[in-house]
Amino acid sequence: MTKEFVILVDENDNEIGVMEKLQAHQEGLLHRAFSVFIFNDKSELLLQQRALTKYHSPGLWANTCCSHPRPNETIKDSANRRLFEEMGMSCDLTIKTNFIYKTEFDNGLIEHEFDYVLVGFTNQNPILNREEVESFKLQTITDIKMDISSNPQNYASWFKIALEKVF
Question: Relative to the CA of 82, which of 92, 121, 133, 143 has its CA 20 to 30 Å away?
């Protein structure tokens, strides 16, 4: 398996280095990431349930896809690459906002990310990459927020933050 590298950044998103992804998560170093939100023409958000084999947040519900840009890769290019790799789909994406968050997981890993939120619109059905995604569903923002209120443990930490930032 090829090692993945992330771009280390400061609080202003200035690049300060590159590190192997797992090491960055072990050390909790701030690095660049993105979260993609895809809507259909009914204003429903395409959610993914993370694969049960993921090294953190397995089985949790999250936005359509998320990942990290590779060195020398733009946010939009990396978001489009991962949208296709995870969900088998593509569409025009727009960067809406960004935020920094830090979450520690039970397995000792730490997500400390400068996360860009991108939004797109399509009625395509996803073709799931089962190594990345267990399942998917379409829901309105209102229904998602109500379910997060009742069942916060079912959702990925960054998704709950990004949802509030965008909606």
Answer: 143
| Cα torsion angle, 35, 121, 77, 134, sign | positive
Domain boundaries in the chain?
5-166
Q: Which of 65, 86, 111, 113 is catalytic?
A: 113
Q: Is 85 a catalytic residue?
A: no
Fold of 5-166: Nucleoside Triphosphate Pyrophosphohydrolase (3.90.79)
**What type of residue sits at position 152?**
P
The pTM of this model reads 0.95
65, 66, 86, 111: the active-site residue: 66
Tell me the CA distances in angstroms from 43 to 11, 46, 66, 119, 122, one per residue in order. 33, 10, 20, 12, 10
- Catalytic annotation present for 66: yes
Give the list of residues 6+ apart from residue 145 with CB closer than 8 angstroms, or none.
163, 167
